[in-house]
Amino acid sequence: MKLAFLPQDILAAVNNLNLNFLTEIRLRRGQPVIVEYHGQYSYLSCGGISEHRNGALMCGDVAAILNRAMDGCVYSYAEELKQGFITVEEGVRIGVAGEYVTENKVIKTIARATSVNIRIPHVVQGCSDYIFEKLLKGGVQSVLIFSKPGLGKTTMLRDLIASISREYMKNILVLDVRNEIGGAGAGYYLGDTVDIVKSCDKLPSISSAIRAMKPDLIVTDELYGEDDIAAVKFARDCGIDVIASSHICVTEYLKTLPFEAYVKLTGINEMPEIYDKSFNSVNDNYAYDIGGRTALG
Question: CATH number of 129-296: 1.10.540.10, 3.40.50.1100, 3.40.50.300, 3.40.50.10230?
Answer without folding.
Answer: 3.40.50.300
